[in-house]
């Protein structure tokens, strides 16, 4: 169990640790704009994300959380430094479908059924479709048994996000990149999806990198929390959350949980 001493001295994952890495980022700089009018979004970011881990990302608004996620996904030009995804550049990882993205909005095609939305990635590109997940099994995994023929407008916001998660998992990505996926949901739905996401993580073994503004959500889900500070975006702390899995929502009322959230809240105030 966590002690106050653990919280004061969180254990950063040493750069170059021998565990197999899903993502390795070294001295990453991201600058936007033209020369002479550049804006530095991220500066000298180095972090290692172990395979199979669940990393949550916190930090003040505009500190570069989404930008960092987008670097892993090959959606942002890297100004300096390096990003490697399972040992290869993000472009190759994208071509190999190593990762999938889930955004705050489910972005389902409104005219397609739940099942057809989940199957959408299988229709794009030339890949060995036999290696993909069974869409019906995925719908069961995300708790949408029997809703495969429903249209998106017939679903609640939480159900639409479940469809988005199933769609992301259909190509069996090794990494799931999630950018505030539950940010627009009511608290009860969010809590339920938090528990379910932990179950999905356990059952699939997928590495998850999850951006959130909620400290309790970051602590409840994360095996590690990556805290970024702003102006420019840098790593403030990469800490292991020393709370056991499986985790149930009641854990949020424990002293150990509250100690971790208090530590992160104080840290967040230093980051602004
Ligand atoms: N394509 C872009 N061109 C120019 N500036 C950008 C671009 N993308 C992001 N930025 C800037 O980089 C900074 C980091 O943005 P980012 O969206 O990564 O922050 P964030 O931490 O995810 O913010 P929030 O928590 O508010 O979602 C911001 O100042 C943003 O305006």
TrEMBL record:
Lineage, top-rank taxon, reads Bacteria
Q: Which residues form the ABC transporter domain?
A: 25-251
Instruction: Give the range the annotation lists for the signal sequence.
Output: none
Q: Which InterPro entries match?
A: AAA+_ATPase, ABC_transporter-like_ATP-bd, ABC_transporter-like_CS, ABC_transporter_ATP-bind, P-loop_NTPase
Q: Does the keyword Nucleotide-binding apply?
A: yes
Keywords annotated in UniProt: ATP-binding, Nucleotide-binding, Transport
> From the UniProt record, which GO molecular function terms apply?
ATP binding; ATP hydrolysis activity
> What family does this belong to?
Belongs to the ABC transporter superfamily.
Annotated PANTHER family: ALIPHATIC SULFONATES IMPORT ATP-BINDING PROTEIN SSUB, TAURINE IMPORT ATP-BINDING PROTEIN-RELATED
Please identify the protein, giving its name as recorded.
Answer: ATP-binding protein component of ABC transporter
């Amino acid at each position: 169990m966590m002690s106050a001493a653990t919280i004061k001295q969180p254990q950063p994952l040493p750069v170059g640790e021998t565990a197999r890495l899903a993502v390795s980022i070294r001295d990453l700089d991201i600058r936007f704009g033209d020369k002479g009018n550049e804006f530095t979004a991220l500066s000298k970011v180095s972090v290692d994300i172990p395979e199979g881990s669940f990393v949550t990302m916190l930090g003040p608004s505009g500190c570069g959380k989404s930008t960092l996620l987008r670097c892993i996904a090959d959606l942002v030009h890297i100004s300096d430094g390096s990003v490697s995804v399972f040992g290869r550049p993000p472009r190759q990882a994208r071509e190999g479908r190593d990762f999938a993205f889930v955004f705050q909005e489910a972005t389902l095609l409104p005219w397609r059924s739940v099942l057809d939305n989940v199957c959408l990635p299988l229709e794009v590109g030339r890949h060995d479709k036999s290696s993909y997940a069974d869409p019906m099994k995925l719908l069961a995994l995300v708790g949408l048994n029997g809703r495969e023929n429903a249209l998106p407008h017939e679903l609640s916001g939480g159900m639409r996000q479940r469809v988005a998660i199933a769609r992301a998992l259909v190509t069996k990505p090794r990494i799931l990149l999630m950018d505030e996926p539950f940010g627009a949901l009511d608290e009860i739905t969010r809590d339920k999806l938090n528990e379910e996401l932990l179950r999905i993580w356990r059952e699939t073994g997928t590495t998850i990198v999850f951006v959130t503004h909620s400290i309790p959500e970051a602590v409840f889900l994360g095996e590690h929390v990556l805290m970024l500070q702003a102006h420019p975006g840098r790593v403030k702390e990469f800490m292991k959350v020393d709370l056991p899995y499986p985790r149930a929502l009641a854990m949020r009322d424990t002293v150990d949980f509250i100690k971790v959230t208090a530590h992160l809240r104080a840290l967040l105030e230093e980051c602004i």
